[in-house]
Amino acid sequence: MAQYPFDQKFRDLVEKQHAPGDPIGPWDLLIIFEAPGAQLYKALIAEGYSIETVSTQIRELKALPVADLIELALTDKLEHSPALLALQQSNSRDVLDAITKLTESSQAEERKLAALVLMRAPGRTFEEEAIAAITAMMATEKDEEVFAALAFAVKHLGINDCSGFLGKIAQSKNAETRYAAAFALAGRSEDALAIKTLITLSQDPDNDVRDWATFGLYLDAQHQQPVTSDIKEALFARLEDSHDETRYQAIAGLATCQDLRVLDPLIKALEADDVWHLTIEAAKRLGHPALYPTLVKLQEDFPSDKLVAQALSACTPKPAG
Known about the structure:
globular; 21 helices; mainly alpha; 0% strand
């Protein structure tokens, strides 16, 4: 049975430092960035783990046989798994070969592991082979557990010609799968099916799905000239969304479209107690003099903020004649 080169106490101490919602966890700091930071080091040193000991254990983890890392990642259920991170950071041909075999496994968890690994360093190092493996998986995969991992791999590897697959999984009953589809579809501004699917997902009952879908439409608005009416109307429909990030993505998107229906919601957002960077950027993009009085007040509160100054300049009324 494969074993980690550190004890459970060490692992518990590391995972205790994970802040909910933080996209970069303590294992990322140790394994990917090799820079744990003062807080994590302090916690480990207080329990008798020296910096040298920590560094040695991480080196030993990365040096484990590929089969052991795969076994450990699967034992961890792919959650907060140091072994998964070690596999994802490897540029080894041995890792690629072993992981590629798992893409054809009869076990969904093993296929999911394969997609999660191929979307990172092994996929970037051996891009052609990784794209071929993920593309083959999309053609046959039927397990809900694997769909989201495939969508993330599609995005990270920049795979095109897969909007049909993403459109299919966007209809899933699983919110995580729909979220992954929205994530992968963002930025496909010349793909009509991708845009259609994002418009549907922008009406999703799940906040995170709506947020990413609306963000995707905002990106499309930046790259389309002129912006199509269906994107504008989808963004307009989200101006009163109860989810802050989704609402502000919609405001930014409509401002990018130069759609003046955004003026009142944008002014309201700029006058809020907590003004988002995205809304100031939206004011700069829109450049409308109706925003000028609100931005003057905002600059009084943030006199040294460069973005506020740029937005104010863009919205300053031009002299007549």
